[in-house]
Amino acid sequence: MGRCSKQIGLFITAYLVLVILALSVPVTPLKQAMNNVFIFHIRLDHIFHGSLFVPWMFLQPAKNNRLKAGYWLAIGLVITVLAEYIQLGIPYRTFNVNDIRANVAGMLTGAVFYRLTMKHTR
Question: Are 61 and 67 spatial neighbours (Cβ–Cβ below 8 Å)?
């Protein structure tokens, strides 16, 4: 494994740890405030959830890796669901299917941006 691959792996690990922390740390006053703010009729909380997963497609390993973009997207979608299910085991957090929808929407938005970016860089 080359130096660049190790750095990317470390970055992906750090990103996932930050996502899990962001979705599991007790933020009750902030969460309540975010639930009452709407942007274009979308709760700020859901925008936050989605924005966490937009960068995922850009973190995939280098092209010389055999992992295709479709597989990377599938892995990311599983992670978006697992990130919410983790909250079932945390007493001060709640599971919300709408948060999963927001996570998936962020992941798919990132996939669209990734696809558009890759088309223009070829």
Answer: yes
| Residues 115 and 46: beta-carbon distance below 8 Å | no
Sign, Cα dihedral of 52, 91, 13, 74? negative
Query: Within 10 Å of residue 75's Cβ, how many Cβ atoms?
Result: 13
Question: Mind listing the pLDDT tens digit for each residue in 64-117?
Answer: 555 688 888 999 999 989 888 888 888 877 888 999 999 999 999 999 998 888
Contact residues for 57 (Cβ-Cβ < 8 A; gap 6+) = 69, 72, 73, 76, 107, 110, 111, 113, 114
pTM here is 0.77
Q: Is 106 exposed, middle or buried (0-12, 13-18, 19+ CB in 10 A)?
A: buried
| Rg of the chain in Å (alpha carbons) | 16
Residue type, 76: G
